[in-house]
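Hello Y.,

Per our agreement to keep a running log of every chain we model this quarter, I'm adding this entry. I've kept the format consistent with earlier entries: sequence first, then predicted structure.
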Amino acid sequence: MARVKTQQTRREQAEASRRKVLRAARDTFLEAGYHAATMGQIAERSGLAVQTVAYYFGTKPRLMSELIAATVRRAMGDVAPIERPGWERAMATATEGGPLIDAFVDEVHPVLMAVARVVDVARIGGMTDPEVQDIHQFHENWRARDCGKLVDALNRIHSLREGLDEHTANDVVLTVLGPDTYRVLSVDRGWDSEKIHDWMKHSIKALLLKPQI
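Predicted structure for the entry above:
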């Protein structure tokens, strides 16, 4: 029993250390940018040794990848937007596109709020670092898959605008519900989260759905 308790304590300590590093990495990346941030700065900020940070996360690119993933998990409570009750209810009951778009944006918007600035650091870092570019693309591919679920659902109930193919529709959703778009509107243009949330719903409906007769 004592051995099991010791193992649990060690796991708890390790998880607490990982959380410290991730918080320090977020603050350091946002302040300094990807390339200027160093593992030494992140370690110092977390109160841990550089060797400990490297033990848990390996390289700086891997730390960035885990930071994005952890930020998304925390924002969505470890349940993907396409698996959350609001989206599943809409999928089961919607007979037109509007409620599906409303439900999807409601689930994705909190994730965008949390992750937009971190993803922007990775995007900029990836311009000159192929490994970081691969990491950014990996997470973008996950976004594309989830946005595709909305487009698939709209197509099944014949709500997509005439002449609009699914690939283009998915690109529209990816752009409107993109971290880059969210960052521009919130940081550069000063929109509050509620205004962005409403604009996203209105824009996707206007661009994807058949006109109301």
